[in-house]
Every structure is written in structure tokens, then in C-alpha cells.
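tool_call: predict_structure(chain=1)
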Amino acid sequence: MAPPAWALALAALCLVALAPPAAGFYLPGVAPNDFEKKDPLQVKVNKLTSIKTQLPYSYYSLPFCKPDTIVDSAENLGEVLRGDRIENSPYTFEMREPQMCQIVCKITVGEKEAKLLKEKIEDEYRVNMILDNLPLVVPIQRVDQEGAYFYQHGFHVGAKGKYSGSKDEKYFIHNHLSFTVKYHRDEQRDVSRIVAFEVKPYSVKHEYEGQWNDKKTRLTTCDPHAQRVITSSDSPQEVEVDKDIIFTYDVDFKESDIKWASRWDSYLLMTDDQIHWFSIVNSLMIVLFLSGMVAMIMLRTLYRDISKYNQLETQEEAQEETGWKLVHGDVFRPPSNSDWLCVYVGTGVQFFGMLLVTMVFAVLGFLSPSNRGGLMTAMLLLWVFMGLLAGYSSSRLYKLFKGSEWKNIALRTAFTFPGSVFAIFFFLNALIWGQKSSGAVPFTTMFALVLLWFGISVPLVFVGSFLGFKKPTIEDPVKTNKIPRQIPEQAWYMNPIFSILIGGILPFGAVFIELFFILTSIWLHQFYYIFGFLFLVFLILIVTCAEISIVLCYFQLCSEDYLWWWRSYLTSGSSALYLFLYATFYFFTKLEITKFVSAVLYFGYMLIASYAFFALTGTIGFYACFLFTRLIYSSVKIE
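tool_result:
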């Protein structure tokens, strides 16, 4: 039973997470902007994205209209790593001033530009824009619900189609944008706050009267004077070499009841929250099943075993001992490759600390979706500072294993995981560079990452290792024999490989439904902001990893096999193998990636994620068994 303090803390956390934000309280960097009538509104452009290639490109890599000078917006570390490239645009509005058929510019398409546009239309690239920190969305009517919409990030560059009576497929560009800006008005102060930014894209072959006179040209296809509005793409603009494309836009302003504080709600609205609850219930059933097994072992079996062992008096009875007490002289014998176990446990602790703090901050609402890249920046910085815990936990364990070279362990902890991840990341980044994508991390950012690693993380790992090694050695509850005991032949189901693979199924089963939504968010560019569900699943994952490791560790000790150290780590850690297999299944069933480079990127990033998941779940399982073995062997009398 959890202590009352835990219950109170959890209840307080839930209340804070569910309570509406206090009036007048805004997080830094996300305070509202008030606009008066006719105030200028500057639309910014972001990267071009595609779910078919996963390679982002800069907006101005395509022949779109440009402002007089292109100005890059300052970006945080997370935004750069995501491939965001935020720049100004020639689209300028005035608050609450509707505009109709405004000409942006006319572009003559050359051979190179036509090829680029056709490639991007073929790969289904979308244009992303931002107004007042809100992303541009295309509202799409839901089939299953009347009057309900879901929102697509950005609009497609164009579309493929055929003229009636023709078999040839042509490429058409979306050159007319019909914007809708929704605002919430404060009647008392007569100021407005933007609460939605939507668009409907059209492909229109514009025609005009007389000579071309830039923005003063009078179009015949749409005319603000004659109230001629574009409502369809009946005569579309084809992408052809040496042909002109005229870019135009409308903007309409609509008053909305949505308040500024709730403007992200429609973006983040999860229509399938029943599935999330199903996921939680499914995971809780697994937890209840495992908790029942652990309770049975702890209460019935162990209680009976310990009572029986403590009543053994004669030498003859002692010789007839069976089960886990028989291996008491070997159970705390240091394992082979104990140095590497210390390193991986330290890495897992670093991950656990990072995820726990990130989740708590996200649940409390500190990682606002309006702060693009904030989540990734927070996770990176937390990872760096959690190096202190990594060094501390690895050296404490190393000292338990009678190690003396704490600097060696600190060095390995600081470089093993980050080094291998950096090598994969560097290789993937080189591939992205080769594709001339904006997703390639610039040299300066790469240098900043290396600086964070060598300048902060590595020293903190060494400080943590020093502090951990200065602590007194953890005492074992029983003495270890000088001569190792022979392990009897094991049943087939106690084979290490078999039991390790079986152990990973339940932790993976507890998270795989939520994993589907996370993968969809990352690779299909959908909003994911249900950290409440994710935090519950994370807690369930911790309990599941701990309980499956304890159950299998107990069965192993009962079979007189005392080599539990590595087995406890690998039992729950093997769930990472199932995660990677599921990612492979997701790739072939849900994604439409066709390019080789994009496939390499997907599997490279999923390999990093699986590696991290292995360190996290393995460490949870290890510490659960570590505490379990100390508990049971300190409860029996050993002569």
C-alpha cells in the first residue's frame, strides 16, 4: 500500500493538471498579443513537409513569391533539430480588414523551377505558415460526424490530375489561398486576439486585362470591385515551363467565442480518446495480473519459505534445503562484465530522470505547444543535467562489485550511449545534407550539441561518479562463498534467451497502443499533446517492468540459478526489441515512404529510440530485482 504522502502528492498533481489556468497567468514567451483594428499582421512561413519523404525543405527552396528582404526568425535548439526554418513572407494583413483577390506576385516558371514544383507535388509536400504563433491548418470535414472537423497541418503545394478526355496526368499548383483569421474580441477595450488561422487552397489559372502592372493589375478571374470570388479550382493553373503563375490571396476575419487561452484546444482535440482509455484499461489489466503474481510470491510463497527456513535447526534439515535459499552464498556474487552493467544502469537512470521531470512539467502545462521545439529543448537540457545521476548510480554499483577504477566507469558512462547515438545521428545528418534538406542540422548547432555533451554532461557524470564512489559500500545481506556453486541443469522454459524474450512482451503490451499515437504524431505530422495519458502509461510501464522482472527473477532463483544480475536487466529491456519490431510493422503498414534515404532515416531514428527504451526499461527491471533480492535474503536466518 502506497504511503499517504504519495497519494496526497498524486492527488495534488491531478488537481493541478485538470484545473483551468488562473486568469492573468501566462507562461514566459506565450503571453497573448492584443491587436487593434487595422494593426498589421505579419504571416511567417515555415518548412515544407511531406509524410512520404520525411525530409523538410525551406519554403523559399520553391519558386514562391518573396518579400524584399528575407529575415530568419530566431529559433531555439529544438526548432533547429526539428528542421523548422521560420522566415517572413509577402503575405501581410490588417486586423479585421477583409481583403479580396490581392495579388502577391507573378512568376515565370523555368525548366528547373517546373521540375522542382512537380517533384514536390508528386511527394505531397505541404506548405506551413504561422500567424501570431498559430500554425496554419486546413479544416477537413469529418465523415463520421456532422459539422465536426479535423485539422491538417499546412496545405499541399499542389495536386495531380487529368483534364477531362485526356489520359495524361498533369501537375497543378495551389496559387490562390483563401485565409480565414478567427479572433476573440474584448468589447471593453476594443482589442482582438487571434484564436485560429485557417486556409482553403485553390488552383486558378488567372487572367488579366491589358498590361501587367504588378499589384495594380486588374484580374478577370477574380475581382474585388465586381465581387467576383474564387470558390473552386475549375480552371486550374498547370505547372508548365516558360508559363506565368500569378499568386493571389483572400483574407476574411471572423469573430469567435473561443478565448485566447483555449485557442489550441481545437488543434489538440483527440477524437479517439476512448482508444486511450482502452489502452489504459488494457495496461492496468496487465499490471493487476502481475501484481497478483508478485503478491502471491511475497505473501504466500515467501512467507511460507522464510518461516520454514527460519525453523530449520538440525544439520540434516539444513542439507535438505531447496529453492532460492540454497544459492544465498552466490546470489550477490558480482556478474561477468559487471563494468558494462554499471554503465548501462547509469544510462538508464539518466533517461528515467529526464523522462520523469519532462512528463511532470508537461502534465502541469509548462511545455506549451505554442512553444515550438520547447519539448525537445527541455529533454536535451534535462538529459545533460541528469548526467550527475548517471555517474552517481553507476559508481555506487561499481563499488558494490568491488571496483576501484571509478574514473574508468565515469568515462564509459559519459561516452557509451551518447557516443553511439551521436555516431548514428551524424551519419543520418550527412544523408539529409546530401538531399539539401532544411532538416540537416547546421554545423553551429552540431557544435552546440557537442559543447553541451563535453562541457556540461561529461563533467557532471564525473562529479556524480566521484560523489557516488565516496559513499560507503552497499552492504550485502548475506556473505558470498569463495567457491561458486554449480548451477543445476535448467528446464527448457528457464533458458535465459527464452525467459528474456518472454519478459519483454508484457511491458511492451502495456505501452504499444500509446506508442501508435506517438509514432503517428512524429511521422504523420499530427498534433500530440495528451501528456496526461502518457504520464499514466509511463507509470504503468514502470510497474510492469518492475513486476515482470521480480516474478522471473524469483522463478530463476527457485531453480537454483543465481546469475540474475544481467538477466534482470535484459528481461524488461527486451521490450525494446518488440518496440523496434512494431516500428518496422508500422513502417510497412501505415507509412507511404518510398525513398531509400527516408527509409534509412526512419529506421535510424527508431533504432535510437529503441536503444533508449532498452536502457530505460532494463534499468527499471534491474533495480526492482536488486531491491527484491536484498529484501528476501535479509529476511532469512543464514547460519
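agent: The CA atoms of residues 392 and 464 lie 4 Å apart. Proceeding to next step.
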